[in-house]
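hey so i finally got around to running the thing on that chain from the lab meeting. sorry it took forever, my laptop kept dying and i had to restart like 3 times. anyway pasting the input first so we r on the same page abt which one it is
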Amino acid sequence: AGSQLREIFDKINNLLSGKSVVSGGRTVSVTQHPQGLDFVYYKLAEKFVNQGEEEVASHHDAAFPIAVVASGIWEIHPRVGDLFLAHLHKKCPYSVPFYPALKEGTSMEEYQRMLGYQVKDSKVEEQDHFLKRMSGLIRLYAAIIQLRWPYGNKQGPHPHGLNYGWRWLAQMLNMEPLADVTATLLLDFLEVCGNALMKQYQVQFWKIMLLIREDYIPRIEAITSSGQMGSLMRFKQFLEKCLQQKEVPLPKGALQSSFWRS
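ok and heres what got predicted. didnt touch it at all, straight out
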């Protein structure tokens, strides 16, 4: 409920502002240690990113309540935003977007970690699990860039707004696609913030959607094996529907104004 989110937001904001907050039955304040605030900034940013790969990965709708709090905290405490991006880029290089290249002298295990895979006891996680986590992270990012905390004073621009989403999309399309990964993440991204990008960029947005259909989809097809077609087919269907209807639907789970009265 909206009222619950406000409580969570206020508690985090109070903690970062140096006020005393009750947590786990104890009263804590960042002023109790000279590095207290730095530590809390770091851990909070890490927690937001973890929620992307855990909660949002399992429940896509969760992206919006988490993102609106993260966005509001970022606006008041810019350091959290910087650290959020650092944690996000490390866990999901595709959020930069960046595809690390295999350099000489790098072990395969280390390289897979650089690509965002979890490696435990020399065992690499399953591709499905990996893609699910990456989807959660990209969806959280796509939600943050379009949402603002509705109770702020909103004097300046969004600290990391839709222009960053536009840049991310353009950069993705300037890179050679990766089988499975590229189609999955483009679909995740456009499902979450395609509607907002469409409203903001209008004609330019539809030009980029046509470019994806005419030029980029064939490039993904060329590197996709028959066993990896699922994500590409879903992306193509989404794209065709949007182009036919000249509309990107509002994302499922988007917070309506009625939510804040709950």
